Amino acid sequence: GLEEGAKNQFSTFSNFITTINQKKEGIGNRNSPTQLVIPNIKNGRDLPPLCLDVRQKQRMSIDTLPQELKAPFPPEPSLPIRTKTLKDFQDDMEKSKASGDWKAIHNFYSTTFDSFLEINAAFKKDTNSPFNTIEDSGIDANFVNVVYDALLNTPQDVQKSVLKGIINGLLQEWTGPRTKDDLRAYCILLQNPQFSNTSTYVIYAHLLRQIAALTEADHHFLVHWSKKISQKRFKQVVDRLLQFISLRLFPAKPEEFPPMVKCTWWIPSATKVLALFNSANSLISPPIISYTDFYNSTLDHIDLMEEYHNWQCYGNSHRFSFCQYPFIISIAAKKAIIQRDSEQQMISIARQSLVDKVSRRQKPDMNMLFLNVKVRRTHLVSDSLDELARKKADLKKKLKVTFVGEAGLDMGGLTKEWFLLLIRQIFHPDYGMFTYHKDSQCHWFSSFKCDNYSEFRLVGALMGLAVYNSITLDIRFPPCCYKKLLSPPIVPCDHNTLVGICGVTLDDLFQIMPELAHGLNELLSYEGNVEEDFYSTFQVFQEEFGVIRSYNLKPNGDKIPVTNRNRKEYVQLYVDFLLNRSIYKQFAAFYYGFHSVCASYALLLLRPEEVEILVCGSPELDMSALQKSTQYEGYQKTDLTIRYFWDVVLGFSLDLQKKLLHFATGSDRVPVGGMADLNFKISKSETSTNWLPVAHTCFNQLCLPPYKNKKELKQKLIIGISNAEGFGLE
């Protein structure tokens, strides 16, 4: 980065920009619509809807643009002629390092970054080609990378000359729409590593402001060009933007920046530019970086409920809210929003029940503040179904479970046990509601037709109650299920509207039925005559209770042969049939069950992957974090048995660590809040050391006898966790 001594000099750029702005404001209206100080982004009517109102779930299509946006390109001005190549630059750098004479390098940098035209002259692959398509930006990425990598190793006057040049470019008087050369310059300038230094943030902020204020058509180009940036550089730009937002929210040295009231547009501008990179990332499969790399954990420490309420009240109006850009909010923060929203709904409904009771002059009962579920163990599914159907109005109250004939106060353990037992019974293959696919190790909805789909509604309600009451479930649904669960994220008012229907691809089928998906993929790539060799039609067959039934994928499908020309349509219709049409009634009941509990605008903030994590927990294990947060009963953490235990567990393979977690908690996944949220406890078991360890999954408790040595502990622990399916062994 830049040396500390240069900060005072860079601060003059801030004064310089301020002075220019004041002079321009003093001059008055001269029809210069593209001054450095453009209309405040917070009030920016002309800003493109980078993230349209998520409450309506309208997503900007990057691939298609309205006809009016496809305006003719403005003519590109002729570029200066520059002959210096990448090798010439590298040779000059070596000579400068050896001799200490940086004149040639200083001239190169000061000239190259003096204007947008000069940037294009230096880095455009061919100055005679327009490069005005989304497929190719025309930027010589290798040259840009080498020049930027070398920049931070040059003397301060060289680095300052680059920043002065950037200011010149940003202060240019725009007289019409931006050219593709302008967009190329923006794309290149965003990658400048100097913007990692807070002393350059005033310049960086104005760059981001101009990019955020571009038209939707220009953003369209920037998005597609950005997805061609290498993963390393792409991640650097994203990290730089996230750091900019974090340090503006919580500056280490507030005196480094202008007062917040004078630069309220900084954070909205950076967030809008970050949205472009998020769009670019989502265009590629697999994405360039993980969606979690866009999380800004700094936002976990602001008043997110105020952000959430502002978003609920104002939507996608002129008032900025981070909830308009949910990709930047971490899953932990989203969980906090959902929990707070759930708590407020619980309190509201409980209060209303109390008011109704008092208004009827009836004696208030504390039980009316809870969703009280009473079930018999011998009739677990039917009793649960009856209770939830009978108490629809209470689903958003705090859950309390009682097992009939058993004395026990539900402090959380009985609730978790109810979830565990119910899920195990419903997902058992003999029950017939779900089919378990061994190849993918996940469950999917049985397509068998029946008269009553209420039990699917029960499973959906269970998942909703789990999210609502912060319970992690041991459920194995494929990612496609959660995508369907958010289609749409808010239950439509019109009951005739289809729900749980989403766009599905062969990739989605691979996650459920990999063998069938592989066969369909082979059909798509088959080089012979499909019609003669496969002899298939647009009709498929399914076995239901021992009877083979046929279904047409399209009208008269049994008479339409599958050919080389229509095989793509056949595969798409077949995948849609398997994942949407054949299970529509089952999934619709499941969908309505989930949303009967979890109806909240907060769901609009979630990606399908995040819903899965909220329901099932994260698969990422950190046993060292579990060790730090573990509580002990009858043991001290310095006891020999405990030291043996952690030596053994930390040396386990990932598979054995997952088995231990499943044995002790009922799930091999971690809650959103991490291992600390498990409240894991190791208790001393006063039994013989010949006994195996015992687990109370309802309380995340492991009872461990005081084994005499590490070898014995390891042997008994592995036997226990590897043979404890169900509750029999305990």
UniProtKB/TrEMBL annotation:
Q: Which Pfam families does the UniProt entry name for this protein?
A: HECT (PF00632)
Active-site residues per Swiss-Prot or TrEMBL entry: C698
Q: Which reaction does it catalyse?
A: S-ubiquitinyl-[E2 ubiquitin-conjugating enzyme]-L-cysteine + [acceptor protein]-L-lysine = [E2 ubiquitin-conjugating enzyme]-L-cysteine + N(6)-ubiquitinyl-[acceptor protein]-L-lysine
Where does the record place the HECT domain?
Answer: 391-730
The record's listing under InterPro entries reads: E3A/B/C-like, HECT_dom, Hect_E3_ubiquitin_ligase
What this protein is reported to do is described as: E3 ubiquitin-protein ligase which accepts ubiquitin from an E2 ubiquitin-conjugating enzyme in the form of a thioester and then directly transfers the ubiquitin to targeted substrates.
The record's annotation in PANTHER family points to:
HECT-TYPE E3 UBIQUITIN TRANSFERASE (PTHR45700:SF9), UBIQUITIN-PROTEIN LIGASE E3C (PTHR45700)
Designated name of the protein: Probable E3 ubiquitin-protein ligase HECTD2
